[in-house]
């Protein structure tokens, strides 16, 4: 038999299993080919005289020793694989205990059946390190027992579901946690179930969700983000975990997490001094690193599904890739975490004890240094101390929400008092009041008085969103950007007051990239994450409104910092509106077509004609949409006509309904044939006939600024030809001038200003002179058209 290395005497637990280790090394010379199911079957056949307790315990001890010994030969980067293998070992043993207990229960009480006579199984959820698949060598296992729904067993002796699964759970725990002559398999910790030790051993899915949603505390959010099914019905469990995501992750940036985790860390620090040798709880230790990762996941995970993973290790890379952590910080945390986990596991495997301290005897220290490729114990300690110190510095940066006191001048103090007088702090929590006052103090020092008065209105709204107050206090760049935006445009005050969720865009700012249909489509698809649009139409409408708000906000921010010009802003806002119209038309057709699948009308049959600013790519943040709906079906029957009218009404409902995130656009339909008395939808032939024979002068003038924004190439060509033919007709100049001046006067009375006079002069010039200069109707930019008319001397002074 292969001789054990001399240093192995430092690890008595492994040394006692040496004979089994040698046999396993012969059977599995490469650890990557180790097959636990095959190994278990072989082990059971070789130990047929052993009872269940002995099988489970002896298998765990020998296989854990084998995995630990092999890990000593592997580089540090491979230790994460060892943690995964140790997790698989634990899952296998828990599954075997589960099967043993189930077999015994079914012999005595039968199976649990629901009302439909379907079999109901117990689900075992792993939390903690077992949940993350990064289990320690000698660790408790955090389990929660859940059953999908109520039922009753079908044996000779019947039990209700709760009683049945309670007995089953007790059997599983005894098989794992009972201390026999062979020791135990795992210490089972059930305290993460609802109401902890005071609660029932098992609970239904419904009661679990109800408890967490209504009574769950912050630490339970942290615990359940690491939950994973290891036994039971996977489909039912996935549905449960999906339902719990809204409890774990918030849709907004959840900065309150920092405060909660900081309190937990402070409590731990009071028990474990910073100079401790404790690898888990000491300064810059394992728990500190996991706090950093967990906090960033909870803050951003509600808005970024890539950060909702159960395991710790992949999150280092994900957080860096998602720009939530600098590359250097991610590498430091990952390398330190893996190394500390290996040192912790080495300490535990000495005597199979759940300890977190480094060894104190010299012989063990020399072995630790050698296995970790250090010349001496002092070298190992020095490197570990440096890395843990760097980790602690990162933690302090992340969790320290204090700001240096700013010195206020007398004028600042007077302004500060004026601002405070505007806020009613009654019934506001004390810590929220402190955050608001500190934020105001910082604002008074940085911003002009008029900006401070705008900002205090925002603070009044944020008193109900303390996590945003904390974000503004912690993220100085975000606070500074808010003040700059308030000074730049009145839009920002209104939109931030109405929709505080947009503060998150300031944190996630990306350099301007021009929008187009493909870009917007990709952004929309990423946001939807495969959501079923017909299952929850109201949610879809809210999502589209939020999508519009975010893009408008980012465009306005881009122009305020000089990234784009006013002309570019008009184009970008127009492209955004076109995309939204496209999505709404398609969505509404799908909504109706599911109920009227026999109708032959297809989504491509509807054309949307835009007038005004949208037609000439000159929309502003307050622009409404002047639209006409045209159907490309010359001979559609009464049923199809009803369908099309319902379709357009549904589109108008989607566009104009006021919801939580506002409306999409105000819609003006007065430019359709016969205006308000006309049909909501017109056919191509009807529209063309009206424009050629019945339209008023001002309706022809409106066609100068018209464009088909939804339609195929052939439909767009039809409109362009019609538009050109209408506009190049020879007209009476006096009548054109008279008619448009009359309309201009009506608009002035209606709107109270004469801002449109110049625009009407351009439109009149086109109608009067287009028959001589047909090139005019080819120009779709109003400034360019104005310049060309000036060059030709066709504009009235």
From TrEMBL:
Transmembrane segments: none
All residue ranges annotated as the PII-uridylyltransferase/Glutamine-synthetase adenylyltransferase domain in the record: 277-386
Pfam family, one: GlnD_UR_UTase
CDD domains named in the record: NT_GlnE_GlnD_like
Residue stretches making up the Glutamate-ammonia ligase adenylyltransferase repeated domain: 44-239, 481-716
Biological processes annotated in GO: regulation of glutamine family amino acid metabolic process
Protein name stated in the entry: Glutamate-ammonia-ligase adenylyltransferase
GO molecular function, one term: ATP binding
Keyword ATP-binding: yes
Record SUPFAM superfamilies: Nucleotidyltransferase, Nucleotidyltransferase substrate binding subunit/domain
GO cellular component: a single term: cytosol
Entry keyword set: ATP-binding, Ligase, Magnesium, Multifunctional enzyme, Nucleotide-binding, Nucleotidyltransferase, Transferase
